[in-house]
Amino acid sequence: xxxxxxxxxxxxxxxxxxxxALTMPDAQAPRLLCVEVxxxxxxxxxxxxxxxxxxxxxxxxxxxxxPTTTRTRKQYQRIRFPGRPAPYAICANGGxxxxxxxxxxxxxxxxxxRLARECAPLEEVHAHLLSVSDPAWLRKxxxxxxxxAYLVVERALVPDxxxxxxxxxxxxxxxxxxLQGRKIYAVPRPLTKSAAMREVARRTGAxxxxxxxxxxxxxxxxxxxDRAWRPGHGExxxxxxxxxxxxxxxxxxxxxxxEIIRELxxxxxxxxx
Length: 273
Prior knowledge:
The protein is globular and about 55 Å long. By secondary structure, the chain is α/β, with parallel strands linked by helices. It has a five-stranded parallel beta sheet with strand order 5-1-13-14-15, with helices on both faces. Strands 9-10-12-11 form a four-stranded antiparallel beta sheet. A three-stranded antiparallel beta sheet has the order 2-4-3. It is built from nine helices and 15 strands. Strand 3 (32-38) and strand 4 (41-47) form a beta hairpin.
């Protein structure tokens, strides 16, 4: 039996210093392992316990661990996970499928064809984002992998009505909007992590799929899996979102990442037994 384990990364498995949510006394805080460095500075962390659990999971011959992220390939490749290297990785919200670190060209062409058929072009959406954003709260505007766009903002200054108007405008053009921390993503509706997960399941012959994620961009991934988990923080938790096959954890912050990996490992052990 092969069990595919597809997990979101940021604020699901790995955490920036701002997202750790270490609410306990300092002397009781868990030991942390830095798993990402950017511009010579530590950026993302796991607990040491979580790192050990992930190494055990990747060593299990019945499990195929698939990092699944909205990050670009370049951003993903900064991460140094413990354990065996992942044979597959899903980047750019499903727009890029990496096989042993190399982008799969056939998958990328198939994605491009579907987006061209079903959605307004990226150039139109990016131009709209720039035209309606306020310099008072906009810090950066980026295009990722020629697939989607996102803004880096001062979240507290972004009006809720502005975000709602953007969601309505995007929906009319086949796009979705997701707020994650200081980033506002505009992503084509057909660009999904679940579609890429199904492709990896097909290639590996996986008989079961497990998933984890915290944001609205992860909802389709969680619904597509046989079993799934979400932490007690993030867009999905804030919205009270869940589903029959999704376990909503109460734990938040980096300890939620540890709990998620523990639950994934237990599920793999049960299924393979």
